[in-house]
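Input chain follows. Return structure tokens only.
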Amino acid sequence: MWVRADSDGYMNRFEVYQGKETGTGREGFGLGESVVLNLCEDILGKGHKVFFDNYLTSLPILAHLRRNKTWSSGPIRSNRKGLPAGLTDEKDLNRGDFDLRVSNDDITFFKWMDVKCVHVASNFHSTKSPVVNRTQKDGTRAEIQCPQVIFDYNVFMGGVDKADMLCGLYGVSRKSKKWWHRMFLGLIDRTLVNLNAFIVHSKLAREKLLLLNFLRSVHLVWLPSQSHQGWEDHWHLHAHLLSQGKRGERTRVQ
């Protein structure tokens, strides 16, 4: 499943991958590029900023999105077609050093050295490079330069991963030989647990709830009133809330 989510983990669009011959692809674009276009077709031209991973990032998709006033960036694989030549060799870059090139389409390609070399492309970032803290091999902290594009990517990327993490805590999805079981239960997890309910409640409610407490409240509302009898005691006895262990790890629900 291909997913578009905001930085809070709210999934606002998805597409089920059904194979190469099912109309996912768009003429002139590869699979990853077509997925980006399909997921972003309702926000093109509205000035949104979109971040995606290295499987989806390419120079053609960045140029296309820029022409449609959709600002985007992401890490890019070093063997992608069309990348600039003549950049500083990796062995000549110290930690915090970076090199860049700007294309005729106003796509900026960055090569930045952290622990290892990172390649990023963007259709809207400047060459601004704030300072970030990094831990050295001896355990000390040092300030190094980091291109703004990488700083922003680390801040705003990860919404899909957060949604997956929340689903994994108390999700109802189970293994099944029938593909539609996983699809149906997975959508229940994503809409109820993460996206339409818990995340919105966390933003708007005065009293914040732990995810387990929130799910418990929703389930009790949905269940018929006559089936509530006895459930309170059951939950208190068997659904222990998350607590901090001796080393700070979260305990499992019993």
